[in-house]
Amino acid sequence: MTTNPLYRYFAGITEQTFECRLGVADPPLIDYITDLLLRFMRSDAVFRVRNPSGERLQGVADMFAEAEARVGVARREVHRHIGDFTLFWSGVYPEMLEKPAAGANRVQDYHDHGKRAYYIASTIETDRAAGAPAEILERLSDLFDLCAFGLGEVRREWERKTGDDTLFLIN
User: Where are the chain's structural domains?
Assistant: First the structure.
């Protein structure tokens, strides 16, 4: 357990939301989601995937293409990031997703891409010490919709507590 006050703040809200309100008693999953919130406070973490020329990739399709161009742990980490990216935006800030074209549902697309990305990441063999355990990534794939809903509830709770509807991204 970390002594970082911001981590403890997010951990408390996330644990209360997932365990008490949603009935998800899964400490490793809740810890992962708490860590995601803390990591994604930094904009360089949100947009960390880069192409070979060093440009930040912001589109999910571009990230998938980059993931497929990589091998091993690097491929797994890009797929994991796609899952994290889509979970964060569709859960915490769904209103920030672009207005969809006629008949499109951008939030649902993010859910579908996130589930797929987490599943792929969970199937790539890696050293146990490297990144999130495959079991967590597989559960994130299976429970993506619930986790996104839960993140929305976490946001509502911090808004209620702070009176602020923003999560400050730090460069």
Answer: 5-162
Task: Give ∠ CA 158-162-165 in degrees, rounded to 5.
Answer: 65
Contacts of 126 by beta carbon, 8 Å cutoff, 6+ apart: 72, 73, 76, 134
pLDDT in tens, the chain (171 residues): 567 888 999 999 999 999 999 999 999 999 999 999 999 988 888 989 998 898 999 899 999 999 999 999 999 999 999 999 999 999 999 988 866 665 567 888 999 999 999 999 999 987 765 678 999 999 999 999 999 999 999 999 988 877 765 555 554
Q: For the stretch 78-92, what's the b/e string if a residue is b when 16 or more beta carbons lie within 10 angstroms of its beta carbon?
A: bbbbbbbbbbbbbbb
Half-sphere exposure of 9 (CA within 13 A, CB side): 12
Measured between alpha carbons, how far is 61 from 109 in angstroms, rounded to an integer?
A: 11
Q: Which amino acid is at 169?
A: L
At 79, which amino acid appears? H
Instruction: Output Rg (C-alpha) for the chain, integer angstroms.
Output: 16
CB atoms within 10 A of CB 103: 5
